[in-house]
TrEMBL record:
The lineage of its organism: Eukaryota, Metazoa, Chordata, Cephalochordata, Leptocardii. This is Probable cytochrome P450 49a1. Heme binds at C498. Belongs to the cytochrome P450 family. One of its GO terms (biological process) is lipid metabolic process. InterPro entries: CYP11_CYP27_families, Cyt_P450, Cyt_P450_CS, Cyt_P450_E_grp-I, Cyt_P450_sf.
């Protein structure tokens, strides 16, 4: 939602009034089928109802429902964003329309309709830009980065770098290296719970998980260990400390900027903007230094990188269709994303296993069968871990790391019996007080579709007993495993699927295997809740570990 508010502001117009003129007849007149059959819009049903009839909250003039997402509203952006989608769906059904400022948002929670959106998103699927990142990179004269690119430029970069990030064989080559990192995390946990006063509880466990995540992505991107999986606190000013703190501050301030109602930071250096920029500067500086060290280490006498079968950075930089700056920025972004997303997702999985000891015991038995103690883990071993994958899917259902998928339409479509135009006709009324006259300017904004997977995850028609944590529902040999396609897409779908998915899954699977193999995972105190930092994060880490015998 913060991205959506940001996108609305980014249009740059000051509005005194926004009025829409769109009818079914007009849509039929303006519809033009694509020449490529694979990219054709959905044919309109003559019985389809017009866009204006999609139900939803009315809100106030000009600002719509924007106030409800402020710290004073019922759906506070940081702590209760999930409540908005679920409450609205209960009230209005599986499709509703909500205006937040000048932005019209269509929210759908029917997997059949979600599939329709993905199947008809065209050659260049479009996501909403993160405006604060765009502003920062424009100021610093950096490439836009894959997350903010759209159109042919996005396809150019994506098609090149995904060769290094999405091939199973390429990712699998790093499994043993990432497994070594995870073994070190196990050693740290063992040492911490061995202290007499610990009682098996590891204080500030998330800090160690973030260190593990940084080490695990560093062996891929940098081909080196940073040495941050130690018992003591990280040294102030150390590379690992600066990276982790910088990434945490970055996400904490990013969500505040993206949900800002005014976008004041674009024109004035606000305190949040200064914290945001300082955080990025901090981890960019460290990552750039480490990357340069890596390049210098692998260079031969003629200045070119030496040959290597598992040199991720070398392979990335060898792509002729991306610039050196784009490749380096991709490496920097991977390191930052790896800390937060992988770390938080491991925390959610461990919490779900701690609260559901039967599932934890079943996973332990699978680990004992497939990965006997002392045996190394490679990609072939991971492919045999069916219950492990079911655990991860079920955790994504109840404790998602990302709530929903968002797309902007590039063609008209019918969803749940309503015509949804690719572009809305917007008329802006500009009032010139001094000459007492009004001028109307018509323009078009792309329609934004939010696919509410988190809502679907709570509905019994798709998941019997949705309040129950049951990984078995994902096993193909189980009678209740007929989960409908497109109900859960934690990494997105299609050409814009999360480009780091395979590395993230491999790292997560290794972490769960080694921790559950060595420890029984318990929990003390209040249940974990989730804070919204663009990526959802745990609000506590009260794990209690006991060594398995």
């Amino acid at each position: 939602m913060y991205q959506l508010l940001s996108a609305a502001r980014h249009q740059g117009q000051s509005l005194f009034r926004v009025c829409r003129a769109r009818s079914l007849a007009a849509l039929k007149t303006t519809y033009r089928p694509q020449s490529n059959k694979a990219e054709e819009s959905v044919t309109y049903d003559t019985a389809a109802r017009p866009f204006e009839e999609i139900p939803g909250p009315k809100g106030l003039p000009l600002i719509g429902t924007a106030l409800e997402y402020t710290p004073f509203g019922q759906f506070k952006m940081i702590t209760n964003l999930r409540g908005s989608f679920r409450e609205r769906t209960r009230t209005y059904g599986s499709i509703y329309r909500e205006r937040i400022g000048p932005l019209d948002l269509v929210v759908i929670s029917d997997p059949t309709e979600i599939e329709k959106v993905f199947r008809n998103e065209g050659r260049y699927p479009e996501r909403i830009e993160l405006a604060s990142i765009k502003v920062y990179r424009e100021i610093k004269k950096l490439p836009a980065g894959l997350i903010n690119l759209n159109g042919p430029e996005w396809q150019r970069v994506r098609s090149s770098v995904q060769k290094d990030l999405m091939r199973p064989k390429t990712v699998g080559a790093y499994a043993s290296l990432q497994d070594d990192v995870t073994r070190d995390l196990v050693d740290v946990i063992r040492a911490l719970i061995g202290k007499e006063e610990s009682g098996g509880q590891v204080q500030n466990f998330i800090n160690y998980v973030y260190r593990w995540a940084l080490e695990a992505i560093s062996v891929v991107v940098l081909d080196k260990r940073l040495g941050c999986l130690t018992l003591g606190d990280l040294q102030p000013g150390s590379d690992a400390k600066l990276m982790i703190d910088g990434v945490n501050d970055y996400f904490a301030s990013l969500v505040k900027l993206e949900m800002s109602a005014t976008g004041l930071y674009k024109y004035v250096s606000t305190p949040t903007w200064r914290k945001f920029a300082k955080a990025i500067d901090q981890w960019h500086l460290v990552a750039a230094k480490l990357l340069k060290e890596k390049l210098a280490k692998t260079a031969t006498k003629d200045g070119k990188p030496a040959e290597s079968d598992t040199d991720f950075l070398q392979s990335l930089l060898s792509r002729s269709d991306v610039t050196f700056e784009e490749a380096m920025l991709m490496a920097v972004d991977l390191m930052a994303a790896g800390i937060d997303t992988s770390g938080n997702t491991l925390m959610f999985n461990l919490f779900c296993l701690a609260k559901n000891p039967e599932a934890q015991e079943k996973l332990y038995r699978e680990i004992q069968e497939v990965v006997p103690a002392g045996q190394p883990i490679d990609d072939k071993v991971l492919n045999r871990m069916h219950y492990l994958r079911a655990v991860v899917k079920e955790t994504f259902r109840v404790y998602p790391t990302v709530l929903n998928n968002v797309r902007r339409l590039d063609r008209d479509i019918v969803l749940s019996g309503y015509v949804v135009p690719a572009k809305e006709c917007i008329e802006y009324l500009l009032l010139y007080i001094y000459i007492y006259m009004c001028i109307y300017i018509s323009s078009y904004l792309q329609t934004t579709i939010l696919m509410a997977h988190d809502v679907i995850s709570s509905l019994p028609e798709y998941y019997p007993e949705p309040e129950v944590y049951r990984p078995e529902r994902w096993l193909r040999d189980d009678e209740s495993s007929s989960v409908q396609p497109f109900t859960l897409l934690p990494f997105g779908y299609g050409p814009r699927m999360c480009i780091g998915r395979r590395f993230a899954e491999q790292e997560l699977h290794l972490g769960l295997i080694r921790i559950v193999q060595n420890f029984h995972v318990g929990w003390a105190g209040e249940d974990m809740k989730q804070d919204n930092r663009i990526i959802l994060a745990p609000d506590r880490d009260s794990f209690v570990f006991s060594e398995r015998t």
